[in-house]
Design goal:
50% of the residues lie in helices and 14% in strands. With 491 residues, it is of the alpha+beta class. The chain has three domains: 1-45 and 88-173, no CATH class; 175-337, no CATH class; 340-490, no CATH class. Helix 1 crosses helix 6.
Length: 491
């Protein structure tokens, strides 16, 4: 995959900030072009937009039902819905494009972008208006959004720099014309920088707009909110996973592939820890190259109405970011490919497990995840093979290997009990224990997959089992030796 070198990255940052500065200058230039109305607002058409805001409650004792605009409250803060008039400058700018494009800063913005690369070929959003290029049309949308932000009192500088970076990417790398952003709920990275997985996939901190868009504010985090239809829990969103790609008109193939990549990153990261995090599908945002924001995020449902029993938060510590990135880069092609089916099944089971409604289902998912990577099809003596291979794969010390062997040996009993309606033992074995063990196994199997096939790993584990059975000092070796003696006497 392509990666930016240090010098190229520095040039990219400089150009994106230069473009961001030009967006701001062009914005105020356009506002001066249209002038002001008597009420002080810019002389442009306006449209009505539904706005959701978090506001303090003046009278906490008042019932939310008495305020039709309140859609949720925790007794201290409420989410209010209101209708507001916001400027809609895009069509007015297009109608006067001949004059506006000749304005000094608008002209500089266009020429600077043209110097950055050949620009895009295809657009998911269709053709630009007659007489305009795709690039000109996007500049119209960027300036239009910026004007709306100014008029509605929203932050402009950071937004302009982010837009400048996106415009630069679109010109220099046509693959990055569309963006999908998913909020990672209950997820934190101990870093001030974004974490790049590939040249198109990254994990980054949220912008102010996204925090507003995903319905999360510090004053409301952690409270149980009363909402029509039942209780709803809000969780913090501070990081997002983002993927960029080229979309073509009337074809969703690229977007579907990008969504699978995004989900693959989340799936891989969740293997790295026992705390639960995820992204709500309803909050995923798709932004085509000419996506208009109108200076206001699209209304979204609050993140997660249903929460896993395995609460977090999930923390990606700074010390493990490099190894975590390598792991995700290793697992992602496996999840996107057609080989290594055993690993894909195992990872998928762990992906599903944390969202199950009861511990028993989670335990069974964890057992299946183990079996998928450490057992062959139609293998005899499955309980022993699963327990012994697991112990030797992840056990570092003799006593730990013996504990793992005994624990996994009971999992086959659990499976049988569940199948026959006896869940007492399964309920005494916590889902957290089983899933944590399964994740350790899968992490090791994925790392090992870079040097040899899964079958080679199983053969090596079986050889080590035979060798250990000859070791009368090792605690697990004695178990293996006694087992061989019993089997030999039976024969």
């Amino acid at each position: 995959m392509e990666r930016l070198g240090g010098a190229q990255l520095a040039v990219t940052i400089i150009f994106s900030r230069q473009i961001g500065d030009l967006i701001m200058l062009a914005t105020f230039e356009c506002m001066n072009f249209f002038g002001r109305r008597e009420d002080g607002h810019v002389n442009l058409p306006y449209k009505e937009l539904t706005i959701e805001r978090l506001v303090p409650i003046e009278n906490p004792q008042a019932r939310s039902e008495s305020r039709p605009s309140v859609i949720a409250t925790n007794g201290v803060t409420s989410i209010l819905v209101s209708k507001e008039q916001i400027p809609d400058p895009a069509d007015a700018i297009r109608s006067n494009w001949v004059e506006i494009s000749a304005l000094p800063n608008v002209s500089r913005l266009l020429s600077t972008l043209r110097d950055c690369g050949p620009g895009p070929i295809n657009f998911g959003s269709g053709k630009p208006p007659e007489g305009m290029t795709h690039l000109e049309n996007y500049c119209v949308m960027a300036v239009s959004d910026a004007i709306t932000r100014v008029e509605t009192g929203k932050e402009l500088t950071d937004w302009s720099y982010a837009s400048g970076e996106r415009l630069l990417q679109a010109q220099a790398n046509p693959r990055q014309l569309c963006t999908i952003v998913a909020p990672l709920v209950n997820f934190y990275v101990e870093s001030i920088k974004s974490v790049s997985i590939t040249d198109r996939l990254r994990i980054r901190s949220t912008t102010e707009d996204e925090i507003e868009q995903f319905g999360i504010k510090g004053s409301i985090i952690g409270y149980a909110l009363t909402k029509v239809g039942g209780p709803s829990r809000f969780r913090p969103v501070r990081w997002v996973v983002e993927t960029s790609f080229t979309d073509t008109p009337n074809d969703g193939t690229a977007a579907q592939h990008a969504l699978r990549e995004l989900d693959g990153v989340v799936t891989a990261l969740r293997i790295l820890g026992d705390q639960f995090f995820d992204y709500p599908v309803a909050a995923v945002t798709y932004q085509p190259y000419t996506h208009p924001s109108y200076g206001q995020a699209n209304p979204r449902a609050p993140a997660f109405h249903h929460w896993s029993q395995l609460d977090g938060p999930f923390l990606l510590d700074a010390s493990i970011i490099p190894s975590a990135t390598r792991f995700v880069r290793t697992l992602l092609p496996i999840m996107m490919g057609v080989t290594n089916k055993e690993i894909k099944i195992s990872v998928s089971k762990l992906r599903q497990a944390s969202t199950r409604e009861n511990d028993t289902d989670m335990v069974i998912d964890g057992i299946v995840a183990l079996e998928a990577v450490l057992l062959r099809r139609h293998e005899k003596d499955r309980s022993f093979r699963l327990a012994s291979r697991t112990a030797l794969l992840i056990g570092d010390k003799p006593e730990e290997r013996k504990r793992i062997y005994e624990f996994v040996s009971h999992l086959n009993v659990i499976r049988g009990d569940v199948l026959h309606g006896r869940e007492e033992f399964a309920q005494r074995t916590t889902a957290g224990e089983v899933l944590s063990l399964s994740r350790r196994v899968v992490r090791q199997v994925v790392d090992d997959s870079t040097i040899r096939p899964l079958e080679a790993l199983i053969i090596d584990l079986d050889r080590r089992i035979d060798d250990l059975s000859m070791n009368g000092i090792d605690p697990l070796g004695r178990v293996f030796a006694s087992r061989r003696t019993v089997r030999r006497n039976i024969v």
